[in-house]
Every structure is written in C-alpha cells, then in structure tokens.
Amino acid sequence: MIIDDLYALDSRTCYKSTCPNDLFFYSYDSIRNILPRPNVDDRQRLPIHCPPIKSIKITLPIHENIWSVFATLNHLTSLHLSNQESSTHIEHQLESLLNQTSSLYSLVVNEHLALRLSSLKITNRSIRRVNCFERCEYFCVFFNANECSKWIDSSLGHQCEVFCIKVENQDNVIDLVQKMPNLRALICECERDKLSKGDTISSDKDDFIERLKEDLPAKCIVNRDVRNYKRIQLWVDK
Predict the structure, then answer these.
(1) How much is the pLDDT for 86?
(2) How many distinct helices (H) and strands (E) make up the chain?
(3) What is the DSSP letter of 15?
(4) How far is CA 173 from the centre of its chain?
(5) Is the CB of residue 142 less than 8 Å from the CB of residue 167?
(6) What is the pLDDT of residues 46-95, one digit of tens each?
C-alpha cells in the first residue's frame, strides 16, 4: 500500500487479531511525506509499519512517536526538510535526524533551515549534496559573508560536493568556490545580480558572469541555467 502524506495519528481504534501480541499493523510500501499534527500524545505508538525507505519529505517539528513506523533510516539517501512558521527550538531534532541517516546523500532544506545547518554538530559523513533553494513562504534570505564563512567552516561545508544556495554577491560565490575543499558544483542565485528576464544573455553583455570568470580559476566553468536565468551554475575542477 502507498500513501502520500502521513500525519501523526491518534489510536482510538481497537484491533483484534490472531497474532500473539494482539496488535494489528498496517504495512505501507511507501510514505512520501511526514507532516506534523498538533495535540497528539507522544506516548502513542502508531499502528503502522514501513519497510526501509530511500526518500522522504518531513515537515518539522514532528512527534517522536513517528519513528516507531520505520524499521530503519539507514537506507535513506534523499531527505527533504521544511518547517512550520511557528516552530522554534528544532535544532536538536534536526541534528538528531541528520546524524541517524547513515546513507543520506542528498539533503534539501528551506531557506529558514538553511541558516541553522552551519551551527549543527553533524557526524554523518555521507551527505554530499545540499540544496537550500526550497522556498519558504514566511522567510527569505541571501547568505552574506559571515553566513558563508560559517558554512565553509562547518562539517557539512567541508564534505559537501554539490551546493545550491542564495548569496548576496559575487564575492560570496568566489569564497565558496575557493574555500569549500570538496566542492564540485555550485548552483547559486545572487541578490545583486540585476540581469532582467528580457536581457540577452551573452558573453559580451553578461557582466556578472564575466566578473566571476575573471576572479575564478580558468578550470572553473561558469554559465547561467537556461531554464532559470537567475541561477548561475559553476563546475569546479580543483
């Protein structure tokens, strides 16, 4: 059975079966989203079992009883995280979740959570792709020099190979490329990039791209995403 959204459930329905423990469990082959539901007793164990999953979307904060659903998170390779506008003090839950997903390769977070990543103590060394482009309806941020510096010095900044981020200016882009030791690809949007949709994007007119090419190593390939003119793609050869 496949369901798209799993909410924290209440357990007011009783089940009787021939199993020795008299418990009946729904078995789901796939759960795509985990969404929070208020006023749920954390002590309730959900009558659902899910086999190992590889990809999931979670909205924080979530009730701890949700983890009884999964046999293991060790097979998870792709994780998409967002949070509610009113959520506070979720760093511990975010850090704990990332550290128990030992096979996680790709992490997508919204703009609000992106700022919190650099302050976390991440021991999981499998994360290689971090995408911070997820739109947040109540929050918008472009990383400044200080925030980029914190990211570069963080554990995720050291191990990340593909990074998608919004930054303030070209200097931020150059710092990320030069100082992230394992970076292979950087996809970014710059607040000071004033190219309009009607402009012709060409090497002799795109001053923003030309400045990046001048200040970055010759082996670094820089271009604009043909599907989204505001996004700049950099391929890094170190």
Answers:
(1) 67
(2) 6, 12
(3) -
(4) 19
(5) yes
(6) 566 667 788 888 888 887 777 777 778 898 999 999 988 766 678 999 99
Q: What pLDDT shows up at residue 127?
A: 98
Tokens read off for 184:
């292979």
Q: Which residue has the tokens 């798209």?
A: 4
Q: pTM of the prediction? A: 0.81
Structure tokens at 6: 């799993």
Q: How confident is the model at residue 195 (pLDDT cuts 50, 70, 90)?
A: confident
Domain enclosing residue 154, as ranges: 2-235
Q: Mind listing the pLDDT tens digit for each residue in 9-19?
A: 433 434 343 44
* Beta strands, E only, 45-138: 48-49, 55-60, 78-83, 106-110, 129-134
Q: Which helix (H) or strand (E) holds 2?
A: strand 2-7
First to last CA, the chain: 46
Cα 19 to the chain's mean position, in Å? 40
Q: For residue 219, what pLDDT band results from cuts at 50, 70 and 90?
A: very high
Q: How many structural domains is the chain composed of?
A: 1
DSSP string, 26-58: EE-SEEEEEE--SS--TTPPPSEEB---SEEEE
Q: Which helix (H) or strand (E) holds 95?
A: helix 91-99
